[in-house]
Input
Amino acid sequence: MCRSRRIKCDETKPTCMACLRSKRVCPGYKDDFDIIFRDETKSTEKRWRTSKNLNLANSQRSDQTAFPNDSTKGHTVRLGDAQHIMDPAEDSANLFLPEGLVVPVDQQAPCYFLSNYVITPRSSTTRGYFDFIIPIIKSEGPDSHFSVAFQAVSMASLANRPNIRGRSNIMRVARSQYMKALKTVNLALQSPVDQKSDQTLAAIIMLGFFETITLVRSGNRAWSAHVDGAAQLVKLRGRKQLRTKIGHALFVTVRSQMIINCASTSNPPVLGTDWWLADYKEFPKDEAGNVATKLHLRLLELRAEVKDVLAAATATRTLEYREKVVQLIGQAKEIEQAFQIWEDSLSEHSKAKTAIWVDNIPGLDLSTMDFYPGKVDMFEDLFVASALNQVRVSRISIAGLIIRLAAWVCSPSDYRTTPEYAANASDFVTDSQRQWVKGRLKFISDALGMNQAHVLSPPASPIHNHYARQHGTHDIPR
Output
C-alpha cells in the first residue's frame, strides 16, 4: 500500500502506522519466500517478443543495403548476402544474423566455385570434374601461381551470378587476379622444375576456364591458346604424369578440352591419336571410355583430312579426287557404325533412360522450356551424361561430313537427292530447334554465369549446309 502511495513505510507489524493514521486497511507484507521465487513468466515473454521484432527489423535493413553504391566495402559482404549469392532463386525464410557479421568475398569465391564446378567421383568406376583442384589447394601456399589463378577464376564465377552481375567490383578484382596469374604462370614456365609440375598445368587449365566464364565477344582465341599451351605442357611432362592420380586427372582434362578445341576448328589432334591414348593400358577398367575417346580422335583426323581434300578437289575435279572422296565417305560410315556398336555394348548403368515425353503443343515459347518436345533422357550421373552427349555430337558431325562429301561427288546435281542425304535427314536444324537451343544457351549464360554459351548462340536464321560454308565448298546448291 505504501509503495503505491509513494510514501515511506515504517514496516511496523502487523500493520504499519502510516495506514493506521490514514484509516486505510494495510494489506501487510509479502512473505520472504515469495520475494525470492517471484513468477517472471509474463515479463520474460514480453522481453523476448520485443527482442525478436528488433532482430527482424535489423535483418530487413541488412537485406536492403546489400552491395551499396556498387561496392563491396573492401571486398566484404554480409553473410546474409552470401546466402543470396549462392542461390539466386531463394525465396524461403529469411536468415537472421547479426548485422555486423561479414565474410570476405575472397573467402566466399573459392567455396562457391568448389561447390558448383568441382565434382568428386562417387566410386572407382566413375570420373570427377576438376577434382584435382582440392588436393593441389591443400599443398599450395596462397601466393603460388596456381592459387592466384584459382582465385581469379573463382572470383569471376562469383561475379557472374545473375543477382550481383554488374552491381559490384568483384569482376574487376577477378580480372586483376587473372593478369597477375598470367605473369606468375609465365615465370613458372621458365623454370625447368616448375614447368612440369601439376600446379603449373592446373593453373593453365584454370586460366582457360576463366576465359569460358568471362567471354564477352565472338571467338575463342584466348581459350584455344590456353588449351594448346596445356597440350604442349602435357607432351613435355611425358608418360610419367600418368603414374599419379592427380597427373592422370590433369591429362584427361586436357585431352577432353583438346578434343573440343580441335572439333571446333576442324584441326587434327595435337600429337596424334595414339599419343593421347597413352593411358589405355594404365587404366584398363575404363574400356568404354577409352574406346569412345579413340573414336573421337579418329573423327578429328577424318574431319581435318576432309577439309584438306575438298579444298584441293574443289579447285581441280579429277577422277583421283573422286575416288578419294568416296573413300572418305566409307571411313565416315565406319566410324558411325563403330559409335553405334559402342553405344549398344554399354551396361544398363551407362545407358540413357527415357524419363518423360514432352508433347509438342502449338504456340509454346520454346525458348523458355527446359525440355524440347519429344523424348527426354535421364542419366545416372554427370560423367555418363557428358560422355553420351559427346558421342551424339560426334555422330551429328559424321552425318554432316557424309552429306558434304556426297554433295561434292554428285555436283552439279542437287545433293539433297542423294541416298546419303536421305539417310542423314538434313544438314540444318529446324526453326523450332534453333529457338530452343538459343533459349538454353541464354539460360546457361544468364543463370549459370557461363558467358561462352551466349557467344556460341546460333544465328536467328538457318545456315543451309553449314559445313559447306565453313570450309569453302562453293559448288553445293543452297
About this structure: The CA atoms of residues 57 and 78 lie 16 Å apart. The beta strands are 76-78, 102-104, 353-358, 374-378.
